[in-house]
């Protein structure tokens, strides 16, 4: 008899226990209807990842645990949930309970329900788990669950074996399970309940983790991953299975659904999308079969396609979980606001997006034309609000201060007047303003606090400038494929970037060309290279020193940035430690 | 022969290794000149606390360690520093090295220099140490250091014994040292190198910690604490010693200097302030002797005096470490901006502060008069910039949007126009703008993003409204004592608070009276009471529900707040995880 497991790829909402339970029940029903004997959910699926300071409330831990145990399901499901501590002076565990009827185990006490606790608690980058949890020192095993015997690991538990953690832990759950195997403990497969955040090409790392574990354990290794966005943390899904011979099956990204896994026959794996109307779904519905040679997805066009979906998914899910229906943004005719408008239209629909062109005395006619073109191509609302009158009025009152002082003051005034107009539309019409900045300019402080930085979300905030151009090409291509007008015209794509805050101003007057700037920033931020290393990599010292010193000098600005979906391997600092837009009041 | 130890109460600057080393050397020289055989610095004194992501740079760990070991001092000094790991896949330790000549130990290798590593790594509230450090499992001892034998603990190491940690650790360094004592290891005293942040009445907890440890260990327990401000983290100093019989000596707060401790004769303890011109010093130069009955400082006037100094110290040190010489703020004639002006003048001097009154059509004459009065009383710069013209101009262009929409849009416009004017002065004149909001209004979202929230620092951001009034009284009293005009006049103290953004608007139209609001907020934020608990404590349910729901709904705003010095036992969320203004480039 074949052994079929359903991996539940869920978009949990942090704090929404009832809603998450309902989603888990629907996904389990799909898995069951398609022949699964067992379903595997994601890490902390019942409360959403990351629950952060909700975990400091003992009532929340208990409510999550009870909800997870009591899911209304007809096949056994392994569900990630916080597990209450045995003593109030101890921290809870990040664990897994078995929901559904307990056939083999007559008594229903918690001990039999709790099948695993996480051993390796990451506390680096976006993770902060030692703050909230106590680690277990023993690997999880669940026997006779729908005739299947499973090893159980939780996210990070599997990463040490692949050598992909920044520092070493004192134990290795995969090695422990393998040792048990050598001592005669026979398992059909090992599962991993994950909430593994996205960045470009992260799936390649996950494939390596699963292949390594499958090879060490000599049985299939299955990873169920969360999908969706929580502020700047994105989860791409891409749940996957690896077999000891290196074969891998990967579920689609940015989709809720079930990856149905036949342990014996990889080719029988299927993806079943979630049927509900409100299911989270962006992009292609595609399952991938990799043989033992293909190491992952490596073509850069695929990565840019994926980043495009990631950015849309981030904004769409932020709006969905925060109850935001409509968006407003400044539309300057430049590349950033054009691409931000494309993202906004894809996320909430063009009829829910308003773009405002706000020309000043330094704005060119082509800027206005280009802005109008983009708005029309996308089918979004568009209006023009010149700021020159206000600018002149302001100069009339504080002109002397401006004339005598740092000239940046006068430039910032224009950006802030635009901020006022965008925010007035946001406040009056219950729209969310989005900021249109990119990672390159934010890194250099080439942006205005309370001006163009104003807004509740920064969709392009973790994309380098040249990636913004690449996204423009994807949006154009997608429009052409649908027979629509490409939203970013030739003029916007090719004119030299300019803030248009002073006569004939060009970005390159203040910054190196973006091809160079982006590369220096990437080497420093993502590869942690210092000035000497970057010069050795072929860059001009004076440029490198200027770029790094602007980066340091403007750090405070980046901390005032609204959330930006993380798409690079290292985003700025630790801005992720924010409140979650999606943090529901779990007591409702 | 008497045994004299100098506790070095230092204001380290994060990342400024050379500057901190110089300060440590000066303080040690003071201790030596006054008869100390040994000096004890604070936790991570050489790199400043908290160094945060600097700790992810291996070069920084090494540079700190080398700097600490090689201090130019003539008596032995125990200095807090990160200790490099033995293997690159391991994390560093938060440790203590012995600087100065190694008399008793002929070889100079690192093993002999490292005298302790921290055992208990806090990861709650503002602490995040498991992220950066690996814990030790053995207590520190340093023998024959200037004829003295010392037990060594680092900050949190001593808090478990007093039962003052939120969750239990698996070990207790104080109990271990006591056990060693029972087994014949004889020590003269145990020291604790701390970086223990301030909040109101925190010193009471530290006294309890030291008394508990001294009683358990049956010898004196000495705690050296960091002083000064790092963004929203403040350190008050108040280094102290407790004897087993309950006697305690406490150094002054908000001062750099040396607490000279005679282990045998508590009455001989002395405070010697740092002599350098740039030493950090706010408030009174007073050492306190407590007998075994007095439990700490409990009078509320002393607490408000201390909070006043804390708020001044926070802004002053933020400016000093960030190179900010001048400040600008909006001066409305209300209580918040009047008190913020008092703080700014105390922090950087009145001639370096500019207050701008920006009346709108809804502003009253008394507001303008009161603002002018405060500016004159403080001796700061003052100007008037009416916003009505701009307001009218803006209504002319987007009036329709405003008329049809949420009325808050029109109110926010006024606040944001003021933000533009304040920021224009900041940018033009290289001043830092400060935001004048308090914790009560920020908790309720009764403030405008990019408007009155604009600015690099929020001096009153962790003070409830009624505490702002209490601070006004302290500033008035201090002025009167100096023979100056009290800066906050009767009218500002007694008129009903109003945002003056709509005709006859009063805060109480939208919020409960501040006495009630403050109390509900305090019960919820500081005592983690939910709605039911607060109602049971005697508050009206409908008010409680409104307050808590506004608190939740406006969480995103608080995360855009600039740093505010922490003065309550629980500040908002975890806003402390910001870049440090003081984070020097340590490679300079």
Helix percentage range of chain A: 25-40%
- Mean pLDDT across the residues of chain A is 92
Which CATH architecture of the largest domain in chain A is right?
4-Layer Sandwich
Regarding quaternary structure, what we see is homodimer
The CATH class name of the largest domain in chain A reads: Alpha Beta
| Largest sheet geometry of chain A | 7 strands, mixed
Number of strands of chain A: 20
Spatial strand arrangement across the major sheet of chain A? 5-4-3-2-1-14-15
What is the percentage of strand-forming residues of chain A? 15-25%
What is the terminal separation of chain A in angstroms? Answer: 44 Å
Q: Please, what is the CATH homologous superfamily of the largest domain in chain A? A: Carbon-nitrogen hydrolase
- Shape category of chain A: elongated
> Might you state the CATH topology name of the largest domain in chain A?
Nitrilase/N-carbamoyl-D-aminoacid amidohydrolase
Poorly predicted regions of chain A: none
Q: What is the CA-atom radius of gyration of chain A, in angstroms?
A: 25 Å
What pair of chains forms the biggest interface?
A-B, 64 and 65 residues
Number of domains of chain A: 2
How many helices of chain A in DSSP terms? 18
Structural class of chain A: alpha/beta
How would you summarize this macromolecular structure in one to three sentences?
By secondary structure, chain A is α/β, with parallel strands linked by helices. Chain A has helices at residues 17-33, 58-69, 110-113, 173-182, 202-217, 300-322, 335-348, 365-378, 388-404, 408-429, 439-444, 465-481, 490-494, 507-510, 514-525, 531-536, 541-553, 555-558, and strands at 4-9, 38-40, 77-83, 93-99, 114-117, 140-145, 148-154, 189-194, 221-225, 227-230, 233-236, 240-242, 248-250, 257-262, 270-273, 288-290, 327-330, 353-357, 381-384, 432-433.
